[in-house]
Amino acid sequence: MKLVHNHVSHAVFAATCEGVALGETLGLSPKDMLEVFNEGNARSYTTEVRFPTFILPNYDSGASFNIVCKDMALVRALGRRAKFRLPINDCTYRYWKHAVDAGMGREDWSKIVLLLKAYLAK
Q: What is the pTM of this model?
């Protein structure tokens, strides 16, 4: 159950970060985007707690890219063992793996939004 929970949580977090990165590139304020997300169907723990508490003030949620990448790798292994394809996990895992490969493994995983802004704008 923990791995399934982490799979969903990390995918929602990655999608939110990707959306915020796109919005910032288009000139939108993260604070304004979060207000809209929280009034609509994009509301989640990520938008209600994680961004305002850990990301916008200081990128310090207490978990590293290494930990999140390990969790997502375990989910991948679970899916393979169950002979169950996980295309969303494949995508989100690549984000975490990219951060680890870029030397950010020990840094706080909330910095993925910074990495996405640089990575996706290419």
A: 0.87
